[in-house]
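SEQUENCE-TO-STRUCTURE ENTRY
===========================
What this section holds: a protein sequence and its matching fold, both as plain text.
Tokens: labelled as protein backbone structure tokens, with as many entries as the chain has residues.
Question of interest: how does this chain fold, as expressed in backbone structure tokens?
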Amino acid sequence: MQRLAGRIILLWGWRRALVAFVAGAFAVLAQAPYDFFAVGFVSFPVLVWLLDGATGEASDGWLRRLKPAFATGWWFGFGYFLAGLWWIGQAFLVEADTFAWALPFAVVGIPFALAFFYGFATVAARLFWSNDIGRIAALAFGFGLAEWLREFLFSGFPWNAVGYAAMPVPLLMQSVSVTGMIGMNALAVFVFSLPALLAARRHLRLGLALFVILVVGHVGFGYFRLAMPAEPAKRSIDVRIVQPAVDLGEKWDASVRDRIFATLLGMSGKAPEEGHAKPQLIVWPETSVPFLFTERPEALTALGDMLGDGQMLIAGIVREEGGAVANADSRYYNSVVAINDKGEIVDAVDKVHLVPFGEYLPLAELFERLGVGQLVAGPMNFAAGNERHPLMLPDGLRAVPFICYEVIFPDLVAVDAASSDLIVNVTNDAWFGDTPGPYQHFRQAQIRAVENGMPLLRAANNGISAVVDSRGRIVDALAVNARGAIDAHVPVSGHALLSAGQRRINGLLIMLAFALVAFTLNVRQRLRVN
């Protein structure tokens, strides 16, 4: 191990960049759908050894001395995000004649930009670097800070945060209810990086002890949480999740809209599966209604005829607001609506956090002058909603809806779910086909259920639709590209183990503890040298 570490430390130039790139790409195998978390114990020790050798000339200024560390982290991040997000390009092939030109810019450009966060992480770590376990703590702090910033800087995109690699199954998800994603990201990097101590053997026993304590604690807490009997359900609701698997090539084709709507009506109105009660709540995916209700008001009458007494439908729609003439001073919203058994829209929630370039065009005037428009196929650009609020369901239950990738933001979900009983996530991952994207998206939604201690109802156009309980266990689900409906009885009894604010504090304390350890050992090493 010492010989291998030495060879990696001495790498320079393109060889160092290549090894960092490959280590980052290899680490993606720890994410869904692969869930091979053991690769973290290879990728992160390699990164530690690369950073051991990422030193500038003593005569250089401090900024130039950090350049090798930044480059190492950037190449690691570029490999990680390129291998983890290549499937984004699939969206540009839905209407390839129009959008294929933009595919390389998205597939390469997004990882290129996100890699700067990991370059920042390794620079932050290198500031407190030492030749013992302190450097492992420094790397955990650097990545914890970078992943936290990735949640909200530049509109935020915390996809495939490192901490998800430590939570492939419900048994290993429960710790996040205490640490939050901030703490989980830092702890995952620390544990994954500990094998780097096998090379120099400084603090090896301490590292082994911490490894055992953290891993056993992580597994043991999960076992304890899952073994605990659930609280008696105060209330419950019978739900139906509809997955229509509509081909995106047809979705906005006027000639097939009636057929799509009829399919949704038929799947929603069928008799319940054996052993299940008639659903009180039916959930359709994001933008599932293939037309504007303002243009087809008779569709609401059809929905009222389909819904039985006391039933409610939550459906993803495009909502128009504004001008009386279509496309004249109108604004469009990616929304969910609640429709009662009379066919009346009783509430609506608009998507607040839109996808840049997918649902709206940042700096629209500048890009339009350059001839750049919305970069994925869709009916129109959307306006952002002002706020999110719970929808009132039968029996007084409250469900907070998140549209598409809004569910990947831990703080956003935690704040808005605080006054609710259920999390509803509607999405249309058909843009990405049967690639890792839908599986990664589902995993992140699943973790939100554990963090907030409440069930998740997820309706996706082509999968993965599911009912997930408050501890992340899948009650029932439909596979990618399957067409069907899930009937489930959902008890509502759980609540978050800790408040969102306490989880955030715990995560920040974990991250700062690593920073303190790294700083202390770095100072001690400097004093020894001097």
